Amino acid sequence: MRSFLTPLGPPVSRDRVITTFPKWYTPDACLQLKEHFHGQVSTACQLRNTGTIGLKISKVVVVGDLYVGKTSLIHRFCKNVFDRDYKATIGVDFEIERFEIAGIPYSLQIWDTAGQEKFKCIASAYYRGAQVIITAFDLTDVKTLDHTRQWLEDALRENEAGSCFIFLVGTKKDLLSGAACEQAEAEAVHLANEMQAEYWSVSAKTEGP
Ligand SMILES: Nc1nc2c(ncn2[C@@H]2O[C@H](COP(=O)(O)OP(=O)(O)OP(=O)(O)O)[C@@H](O)[C@H]2O)c(=O)[nH]1
After folding, report:
1. 89 alpha carbon to ligand 1 midpoint, in Å?
2. Which listed site, 15, 47, 72, 117, has its alpha carbon 20 to 30 Å from 81?
3. What is the total count of domains within the chain?
């Protein structure tokens, strides 16, 4: 992952301080314990004095058809709010979400791109340098799933091969249940395997995945 240094801001909020990991993470998986982790940062973390060292930042771009719920997803994640009114994204927008992981300051720079065709050339100018690509589709609208192939291809074209983590995210899960939901998720999982993406079904309207 690429990173660059920026000054630290105010303390991160409590729910963004991650000190324990799910069981599949072992201490060995913590970057600051690895030899190639920058010596200055390791030392600063041991001293709990990261103020002058800076932050690790990863760029996330969220792409997908108009109206699938990209902005809603980001607003739920960053602000824990949901707005039922549709306001089209004009070009791009972004949020910074700050974390502390095992004592290391870390930020996600999340780029919300417009799904409308007329803004595509503006939005695509921001694909470059992404470490994470989230391709979103509406679980209730199968053609938006078909279009994720093209969105991903466009985003990958601007980035080095193999340099991005890829997620496929089905939105508006609250609007679907039973067999229809299972069918949509099965198709999505199939495509996610093809894309080598991790799949998630989510609702921005209800809290939690
Ligand atoms: N029921 C429900 N509605 C949702 C959900 N997510 C988004 N919506 C609604 O879907 C509409 C479109 O959501 P947006 O987040 O603006 O969609 P977008 O993909 O950012 O759209 P563009 O900016 O045009 O690309 C809005 O009216 C949202 O309220 C969800 O999880 N459940």
Report:
1. 10
2. 117
3. 1
